[in-house]
Amino acid sequence: MQKTREFHRRSITDRDAFWREQAERVLWDTPFAEVLDFSRPPFARWFVGGQTNLCFNAVDRWVESQGEQPALIWVSTEVDQEITYTRRQLFDEVNAVAAMLREQGVGRGDRVLLYMPMVPQAVFTMLACARLGAVHSVVFGGFASVNLAQRIDDATPKVIVSADAGSRAGKVVPYKPLLDKALSLCAHPPKSVIVLNRGLAPCGLEPRRDLDYQALRERHEGARVPVQWLESSEPSYILYTSGTTGKPKGVQRDVGGYAVALAASMEYLFDGKPGDTFFCTSDIGWVVGHSYIVYGPLIGGQATILYEGTPVRPDGAILWKLVEQHRVNTLFSAPTAVRVLKRQAPELLSRHDLSTLRAVYLAGEPLDEPTAQWISEGLGKPIIDNYWQTESGWPILSAQPGVERVATRFGSPSFPVYGFDARIVSEQTGEDLPAGEKGVVAIVPPLPPGAMSTIWGDDDRFVQTYFTSIPGRQLYSTFDWGRVDEDGYWFILGRTDDVINVAGHRLGTREIEESINSHSGIAECAVVGVADSLKGQVAMAFAVLKNPALAERPEDARAVEGDIMRVVEDQLGAVARPARIRFVAALPKTRSGKVLRRAIVAICEGRDPGDLTTIEDPSSLEQIKDALQ
Ligand code: AMP
Fold first, then answer.
1. Domain coordinates of the chain in residue numbers?
2. Tens digits of residue pLDDT in 277-288
3. Which protein residues touch ligand 1 with a CB less than 6 Å away?
């Protein structure tokens, strides 16, 4: 791994020269004057003074050389449709949507919120925003009204683009009614909402607010909208993510740094080249979808597959069928998807010709060894576990086959990626820890190009949240535990905070607790993440009722549980619904009133709860045990 180490070392010690070279991958309208301005740490401004545009780099620049080649391949096994857009057609669609948005008054710096299923119009809209210099904020379709309303009020979009419905596992999932409800909760609703009517669900349009996507699209057929050149550090998008507080954080990304980071990653991490086909099964509502369904492959001159469907419909070979059919070179998915496939017949892995496929990348949650081994042996392809976060924008830890081919180890996302000065540090002293010791995964600032620039509208919160938790040094905390082995392979050992990861979906337990507490019958509750063989983790809730008699009989308890589940689903979405809600008379707390979450998790997972000297009422833990029976 000498070459990987040397490459990484140079990215840190000869930082400016390294990134100056990488920046040549991007087309700049005005060249940058300075590689990095780090005069106000921890804020980093990359490629200062340079002007560029993400849409131009993803679409326009490839039209001449690849105009008739596939750029966006939409496959929906939900509605049985497949449409391929060449780069030129993508250019046309993006221009039409840009004209639609411009007509609604959207321009440089304005926000546009997307609440859309996995349809090509969502990609057109993201790219159209980039073209206009507008800031998009995509909200995951699995989130419901309260989540959505919070994000609308924080981003204050000029326009929202949505759809009548999505479809998941053959079931129609309405979007518009949730959006309407969210808008009724908002303090700052937008003036207009553009609605794509797919004909999946009844979809009323509010006369003075809602506009029909298709009608606008027809009116703007053939429109051409000039690219808005942006200074490298201007915002490209906001993507909300959960943390320890109930209020989601708007991760803000720049333009130039992001373009450079993604362009370089297409070669070094994915070993890819223009003309390849990239298939990422994530959702556009997550960071992986932003970087590796939309921007990364398109900026790298690759075709990208946008897939609306699950890995097991019509059968467990669908992903491999698509790989064969579209001659996919890189597949990017999540450990949960593989664990779902593991429950299917193993022959499905070898039914299709996978000769074009170089490797399978998995990210978003811990990849357990047995799952990694199963898929690796079943496919006979390298499996690349890579570790990152919404905040980082692209992988922090990964094998880098475009730099050097190094053997991977099951259970490890390999090594720090160039640009990330990652360390394992002591939670108590902030000092670097030697190999073998468990500590916090931290990054020495500046964060590299492509990582978050700040929290939308809240620079102080950015500094406070990420750069003050490690004593003695201003380091970025990932809030993950990690360890490096003697050979330099990194291992991620879970979160240091109250964030949980359910099937790759990052959820804040605090948000779920707030939602449960909004039920009038609840006095207080605690939500924890508990290990699950399919989803990695699931949320378990323990609640104290104001009137304990309400749940005395099992059928009453089930009714109250169902009632609370509906509240959470209604407010936050089905993804946030706990697997179980159990009722207890008191929560286990310390004498200072802190809920003993780690002890609760240990009991739920059948482990020893450890040191309990600070517990106020030891019987409360017994109650948790009883409630689990
Ligand atoms: P998100 O911001 O939603 O992408 O979630 C990021 C979090 O997911 C990280 O902080 C980790 O806790 C977890 N995560 C992501 N990728 C991996 C991985 N390859 N191995 C272990 N945990 C991961």
1. 2-309+386-480, 503-628
2. 999 999 999 999
3. 241, 287, 363-367, 385-390, 413, 478, 480, 492, 495, 501, 506
